[in-house]
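Q: I have 1109 residues here and want to know how they pack in 3D. Can you give me a structure?
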Amino acid sequence: MPKRTDISSIMIIGAGPIVIGQACEFDYSGAQACKALKEEGFRVILVNSNPATIMTDPGMADATYIEPIEPTIVAKIIEQERPDALLPTMGGQTGLNTALELEAMGILEKFGVEMIGAKRGAIEMAEDRALFREAMERLGLENPKAAVVTAPYLKNGKVDLAEGVRLSLEVLNDIGLPAIIRPAFTLGGTGGGVAYNLEDYEYFCKSGMDASPANQILIDESLLGWKEFEMEVVRDVKDNAIIVCSIENVDPMGVHTGDSITVAPALTLTDKEYQMMRTASIDVLREIGVETGGSNVQWAVNPSDGRMVVIEMNPRVSRSSALASKATGFPIAKIAAKLAIGYTLDELENDITRVTPASFEPTIDYVVTKIPRFAFEKFPGAKPHLTTAMKSVGEVMAIGRSFHESLQKALCSLETELSGFDEIDIPNAPEKSAIIKALSEQTPDRIRVIAQAMRFGLSNSEIHEVTMYDSWFLERIREIVEMELEIRQNGLPIEEEDLRQIKSMGFSDLRLAKLSGKTEKQVRDARKKLKVDAVFKRIDTCAAEFEAQTPYMYSTYEAPMMGNVECEAEPSNMKKIVILGGGPNRIGQGIEFDYCCCHACYALADAGFETIMVNCNPETVSTDYDTSDRLYFEPLTFEHVLEILKKELKNGHLVGVIVQFGGQTPLKLARALEAEGIPILGTSPDAIDLAEDRERFQKLVYKLGLRQPNNGIANSDAEAFKIAKTIGFPLVIRPSYVLGGRAMEIVRDIDSLKRYITEAVVVSGESPVLLDSYLEGAIECDVDAISDGDKVHVAGIMQHIEEAGVHSGDSACSLPPYSLDSEIIKELNVQTEKLAKALKVVGLMNVQFAVKDNQIYLIEVNPRASRTVPFVAKATDSAIASIAARIMAGETLDNFDKRDSYGSVSYNETIPLADPMSLANPMLPWFSVKEAVMPFARFPGVDTILGPEMRSTGEVMGWDRDFGRAFLKAQIGAGMKLPNKGCVFFSIKDKDKNDNLAETAQRLIKLGFNITATRGTAAFLEERNIPCKQINKVYEGRPNIVDTMKNGEIDLVMNTTEGAQAVKDSREIRSVALYDKIPYFTTAAAAHAAALAIQSQTEGEIEVKSLQN
């Protein structure tokens, strides 16, 4: 069936900010869908609040709205754009839920918008737990024994969670404990969990109904220890259906599939079981009524009797779809978008083979392993226990010819300094009870604990009994452990065949060095001497039945066939540039760096270079097979990268490698690659090192006549105390060479410093700590610039809304600055230029300044891409990462036109989109505000107060004619609903009791709010004649502020605090605000901005505007 001609414009709703459970895999699917629909001649309208995505680049859609994904705002865009159709399946749960709300509001009917890909009925049947059960029963498929409970509404419109819990207790006798609680219409298992006792049960039933937009939960019988599988299914309007990929969870049921180690294809199913699951998965799609596109069906199998039950299905492109696409080379999102406009699978070509149709079911002759990446260390107080609620912040994928190879390559990819199955400490081992205790805990390191238990002599059956890991997986892990023992005892083999066999099991050179007592270089030299080199195979979707036309590759160590090992790399004879990616998403290094890598690929390809991407993250656009000319899906370790480069050097001309765009990951390899004679493009590794090396950098700052806060570098505990005495408290302390403020803290007294040194870090010459005077109350600024080594262009100056001391990645910021003096802005430009020239920067540079009492202090310089690059690019309509990539490849800033200032153009005027490859004046006549999105709700017990260690997972952007309105949009985009009336609670530290605070309070009073404040704050406000009611702090007796909040009497919380005791005392206030969804601000500057935003809410309706006009 050819494509539809009765529709000409299609709206896609994106997934919004990166959050746990919904990460950059939806940038990948959304970007693919936009490209596919534009390719077919449709006008594409995109709504997404996330500036860090490739998807929101103005070239991806015809009209790009970086606006909050909130039904009333999306309704305005529909009214303005009048799309013919809405594709709701590309934006994760956010896109799906928003589409359903628009349908319920009557917006789609009113403006004649058709939902394509999945109709409302199909979405509801898949997402509504009761309807899904009924559908499965009609098919004769078994569901877990379960009950569906929906919390009713009270007369005042609020949800009656207490009644919901009472109804849940009524069904408990039928289901029994342990029970699994799954909220409806949520992502990543938010609010759900496993209840082992009555207390757990009541807690998860309440949190689940609260998290569900439908206030609905499914209470399942316990399937703990069962095997879990997923099937990725694609179906078209003619009822052709294929299984793209089967995925097996290595972790048994009880751990969310997003937090499980998974493998593709499924490895422990018999052919009969697989065929039954395959047929049933396609039946599920038909019954639910998903007409076209990709869906994901999850299954559980009882290992003791083979009983198979269906758990759930996602009627949309999911997290697993990205993994399945990268694992097989089959572009699920692209195909799903084309099926939604009427094509059938047999009419679409397979891009990889270019001879088979998309209806040809993919087959793979290798093993793919996905391992999640966690960030528990960022959340003190959070226990690293894995449950049915997802907690991972990213993932890696590795490809090998065997499970051993694939698994060990994945462990090396994690960026956690693992070289394979490194030993792990088990407290009180080798005592058996201690080992069994460690095995019983579902932690991110469980697979390494299993290997360690084997080293201590536990049998497979003993380990299986505790962990319920399938015996097949345990046997493969044991083979790795036994090989390790052999290497320890006998050293590295001296025969080529023996060494090749070890390498084919995925052992890295570094792991072999540790096992054999050699250095990594000695192992590499021994390997090269025996001619044991990696060969590269292509992902071809058909197990080598047809030749792959797309160079998408992975490495392996294969035994020779008829004297030769076949390598399919076939490097070209072109001028080529290698871009090293950022590896797994984690807090501090996220999608922003992948955005930069993609831009490097696009810009350098346009300039005539062959682009080669190296990365191991399956969620990203950079690992899409058509982003670069050649893609290597490999760990970003020195060994793996060097093997690729040596292969590429065999033909053509390697111009160089870009290490500046992937965050800290590739930067760590720069020196070692340079030592191997590999040309590094852009700023030299020495200049990057100079900016990181405190002592060298201090000399440069002194020479340039710039100011820094008083600081010192300590190589021992004693030195740290001595420097602290000289600098004075408060001070900021952190380890050298970190990203995302890892282990960074504000220390206010000698006792806190002692605690930091004993608990947080080990101070030594190898790992020194940096101590800086803390500039309390200073305004922090970020400046992004591009330099060609001679000239400098300042691309963006951002003023942070939170004061200095809050990590720049967690602070909201405004471009242009909203309250800085023009003279200060001029001086920031001058100092940035001085620094770029002194460091001989070629490419991007980010500088962080603090402004206090009209003095500018230099905080740090990063001569590389920073996480602010995409935001600056979207705010200024200038593709600064693309321009920087071209400069690194040899062009100068003179090659790019400089745009004049827009002057005082109003927000409502239509301004044609400027050439993105031109340099913009960042002092724009409108404001763009970036707001960070925090994952605190995922980590019960963690304090939500902001500090110098970064904890946000993503960001949103709001832009409008004035700062207040732009900040309001950013808050809505981040999920913070600001009230229009009610009661505001103030509890403010002494240093913030100033004119600014008084102005914030007066503004709220004028807007009709009442104020309640703690004793000291109330006294300050009364002195300024600001009416307020006094209330007890938590420790001052009952009723106190927490009681009042729990009674629903507080609508907005403004709480700033300092000192360990005050932070501890006010912690419960922030906790109740988080879980009761009361908007809260923990810095005075953010409270002031929030008051401006609330005022803006009263000044007329929110307007929407696309980037293109």
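Q: Anything worth noting?
A: The chain has a mean pLDDT of 91. Residues 471-490 form the longest helix (20 residues).
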